[in-house]
Design brief:
Layout (H helix, E strand, L loop, with lengths): L3 E4 L2 E4 L4 E7 L8 E7 L6 E7 L6 E2 L7 E6 L4 E6 L8 E8 L8 E2 L3 E6 L1
Parallel strand pairs: 2-11
Antiparallel strand pairs: 1-3, 3-8, 4-5, 4-9, 5-6, 7-8, 9-10, 9-11
Length: 119
């Protein structure tokens, strides 16, 4: 059973930066792709970014493209989300998730970390 633990959330002013981290309890086929999602109050959870093992195929939602950067350190089973030029509308709970290479379903999720961007 893979466990994902996020860290790095907090309060930041608009235009600022934050770096989120997510560490998996083990390296397995279920952590081949690691992604970030977010959910704002009253809204559905939405995809933010994802990356494959060895840094393959990083991809982003149009909303964050050019401002956020996803990366991973496979030796530490950790994925990062560098968030720059933050906007109040980026305020949400950010979740780390993982899936296998062949699945489209993210089967493992972290507990979430709050990101709040003040105007």
């Amino acid at each position: 059973q893979v466990q994902l633990v996020e860290s790095g959330g907090g309060l930041v002013q608009a235009g600022g930066s934050l770096r989120l981290s997510c560490t998996a309890s083990e390296r397995s086929t279920s952590t081949y792709v690691m992604g970030w999602f977010r959910q704002a109050p009253g809204k559905e959870r939405e995809f933010v970014a994802a990356i494959g093992r060895y840094g393959a195929n990083p991809n982003y939602s149009d909303t964050v493209k050019g401002r956020f950067s996803i990366s991973r350190d496979d030796a530490k089973n950790t994925v990062f989300l560098q968030m720059n030029s933050l906007k109040p509308e980026d305020t949400a709970v950010y979740y780390c998730a993982s899936r296998s290479f062949t699945s489209t379903f993210y089967g493992y999720w972290g507990q979430g970390t709050q990101v709040t961007v003040s105007p």
